[in-house]
Amino acid sequence: MDKRKPKKVFIQGAIPPEKIATSVANHQSKSNIGAHSIFLGQIRADEVDGKTVTAIDYTAYEEMAENVFHQIREATFAKFDITCAHVYHSLGKVNVGELCLFVFTSSAHRKIAIEATNFLVEEIKAKVPVFGKEIFEDETHQWKVNK
Fold this sequence. Notes:
The chain is α+β, with helices and mostly antiparallel strands. The chain has a single domain (about 10-145), classed as Molybdopterin biosynthesis MoaE subunit (Aldehyde Oxidoreductase, domain 3, Alpha-Beta Complex). About 30% of the residues lie in helices and about 40% in strands. A hairpin with a 2-residue loop joins strand 3 (about 45-50) and strand 4 (about 50-60). Helix 2 (about 60-80) packs antiparallel against helix 3 (about 110-125). The radius of gyration is 16 Å and the shape is elongated.
């Protein structure tokens, strides 16, 4: 198997919904694909100690994080019979209701695509050094803890 070159994962600010439509459209010509699976992470208006989250400001040591994303992507290709795997994550401020994570896999069959997407999302949440600062309505903040 050829070694895939690392793909750029980070997008400044929210992920525009148009990016998802374009990604799907770009795969229509690939006749060996029978299924796509997509995960979209969206900012919630969580309530913490009586204050409501209005945005999350994401930061990362980009080079290190991009390397971890690449390792996870390679592990996904090794574990699942998928055709494509795309991952995009926001950096900077993302408001409530906006998208911050876009994971998109393609395969000949739906079960494999769904399992690969789930694997990618769980590995990203567990291993990628991306940090989110929850910003509250009163402009105070706290560092987000992944659950």
